Amino acid sequence: MFFITVLATALLSIAGLVIASPLDTRQTATITPPAQYYLRTKVVNGAHKDTGSNKTNLYVYSYHTGAGLGDAALSSNSSRAWIGYLNGTQQLMTYAGNKVGPWPLSVFDVPYQEWNQVTISVASTPDYNPGFFFNSSGLQYNGSTGGWLACDWWHGVPQLFQVNGYLNNGFGLLKYNAKDRIAFRVEIIKLFVEDDIFLSIFCLLQVFAQRHWTRPSDDLMLRALQTKAHLSSARTTGINITNFAIRQTRAKSSKMDSSLHPLTGLYKPNNLKALYYGPNVVKDHLLSALPTETSKAFIITGSSLATKTPLIKTIEELLTSKHHAGTFSNIKQHAPVAQLDEATEIVKKDDTIDTIISVGGGSPIDSAKAITYRVNEAAGKWLLHITIPTTLSAAECTAGAGFTQSDGVKTGIAHPNVYPQYIFYDPKFGAYTPPHLFLSTGFRALDHAVEAQYHPTTTWIPCRLVALNAISELFKLLPKYKANPKDEDTITGLFLAAYATLAYFGLNVKGGLGLSHQLGYALGSPYGIPHGITSCLTLGHVAKLKARQSSDNAENVAAILPYIGGKRSGDDVADADAVGDKILGLVEELGLKTTLTEKGVGKDQLDVICARATGGLTPQKENSQQEEETLKAVRGLVEKLW
Ligand SMILES: *[C@@H]1O[C@H](CO)[C@@H](O)[C@H](O)[C@H]1NC(C)=O
Ligand SMILES: *[C@@H]1O[C@H](CO)[C@@H](O)[C@H](O)[C@H]1NC(C)=O
Ligand SMILES: *[C@@H]1O[C@H](CO)[C@@H](O)[C@H](O)[C@H]1NC(C)=O
Ligand SMILES: *[C@@H]1O[C@H](CO)[C@@H](O)[C@H](O)[C@H]1NC(C)=O
Ligand SMILES: *[C@@H]1O[C@H](CO)[C@@H](O)[C@H](O)[C@H]1NC(C)=O
Ligand SMILES: *[C@@H]1O[C@H](CO)[C@@H](O)[C@H](O)[C@H]1NC(C)=O
Known about the structure:
With 642 residues, the chain is of the alpha/beta class. Among the domains are: 3-253, no CATH class; 281-425, Rossmann fold (3-Layer(aba) Sandwich). The chain is built from 21 helices and 23 strands. The strands form five sheets. The chain has a nine-stranded mixed beta sheet with strand order 12-13-9-8-7-6-3-15-14. One 2-acetamido-2-deoxy-beta-D-glucopyranose is lined by residues 240, 242-243, 377. It holds the Pfam family Fe-ADH. Keywords: Oxidoreductase, Signal. This is Alcohol dehydrogenase iron-type/glycerol dehydrogenase GldA domain-containing protein.
């Protein structure tokens, strides 16, 4: 219905005003568009080879990317189309029945960048980004002489971009003549400007698809990802862009929200084949976990385990030269990338290796996952991952691995096949861990279990209910461990509790945990603070903050109280505060209380920490009201940590 109305308006108004554009130096005539219209793409160069999706006849809509955020995306489904109209030189977008919009189509001009992100964000202020007009080639943006670009990108749907004008106007570093410009853009499918008759009910976004479409270089795609997906270069280095795109699509299709009312969710078990626990399980059962009679295993561990304990020697002797291919014992805290590269090279060179054994805390375990992943990329084979954890970080419970870039920020990989298939919780190994480290990683485990309670995709059973009991175990066993760090049953009990905090997230839970983990990443590797300690700093405060964000969160945090010896009062926020206080109390009881001042972090880092923890929100930026509130709450929390 709406389309027909617009058609009538459009035909009338096309015959309307034709004036000289004040914006265009080349004197093209502008056209007054219909009062309302849909923006539809047109491939102007006819038949073309395109290894991506067809870019003809797609409609512009806002693809939701987060609270108040949306990217301009393209769909062949006309019911998805957003309605456009021009207000002055601003391109506004809305939809039928919209009571709060419209919102601007915004081009994020970045000098020296080849193409720009285009957004339709509820968070944008209405007066943002003027400079749009129509001529007979369709919608134009003054900042561009390069035109529009349609490209399959990280959302798994075609997205709209804008080719930066600096290439054309000579004020940038690069000066291409017309021919070179075309050559320069051979890699990209784009919306292109060309003479055409402006006659349809739709305002055109002319798409020029190259005759021979070739995939942009990984380097170009990575740079674009950094600027357009709001990812810092640190978070994209090391990412294989091909796999990344595939992963984004898959993650979307397998993710499902869970809820208590109605009771719904999805649990996808991970690839664990066996979990052994108790004294001497390594000695008694490690060899039986090797896949074949002739298997060769490579050991990944940290230097203090290798040099200050007899443990690695024990394993090497157990494997004998028949099964032991080598040991890499140079993995440091937060797994720096240079060491990963070194270890990966060694494993790649020896094609008899079919197994990787990680021994230690989160860093060796994550490193083994990252090496497994990289070896598969290079050699097309998956190593069997066996792990012998010596801390309570529970890194053995996920299929993802964080590691640290040279600039100190963490990045990561994820794949179901990097998940350790055999876990050995042996207190003979745990007994060598310095008690202070063992205790603080216990808080990391507690952090997992608490944040599981308000994570949007964790299941009620097994994940959350098991995690609630794990919280109870941790509160009971951590003080017991502090009193006697040599008691084997306590050590084994804590290993199992740590396992229970994270193991039942399942493979479908993607992305980060909650705010306490986000803050942990923001504080951990950049300032050299171990993750157990970051959890000691943040978790109690985050529990209280979360409870103030929604009544669901309050209920979920309050539900922890009976598991840690408290009684429900009927007031969820008050109960959540009691949970937060009990966590902070346990930190103090175990002698782990600290501050950012003690850790040598300057107060000038406040904004940086908040921006990292919130995914880029800063006080200087225009934020939506909801984002403003998040930022304010997080700042309030972080300020307390000094
Ligand atoms: C429409 O405007 C663009 C951008 O200024 C220009 O490149 C193009 O040639 C114009 N089209 C016509 C038919 O004038
Ligand atoms: C793309 O889709 C249009 C119809 O929307 C069709 O006419 C055209 O042939 C398709 N192009 C290619 C390259 O498949
Ligand atoms: C088109 O989009 C509408 C609204 O989002 C949706 O209900 C419908 O299923 C879609 N149709 C197709 C064929 O995908
Ligand atoms: C058009 O822009 C003016 C000035 O920025 C603004 O006051 C007005 O509300 C806008 N109209 C619509 C319909 O968005
Ligand atoms: C585009 O137009 C707007 C509004 O007239 C102006 O502020 C802006 O500087 C222009 N940008 C370029 C690159 O010409
Ligand atoms: C990235 O992954 C793809 C597909 O798995 C593979 O073909 C390609 O060689 C990898 N690229 C790099 C640079 O490792």
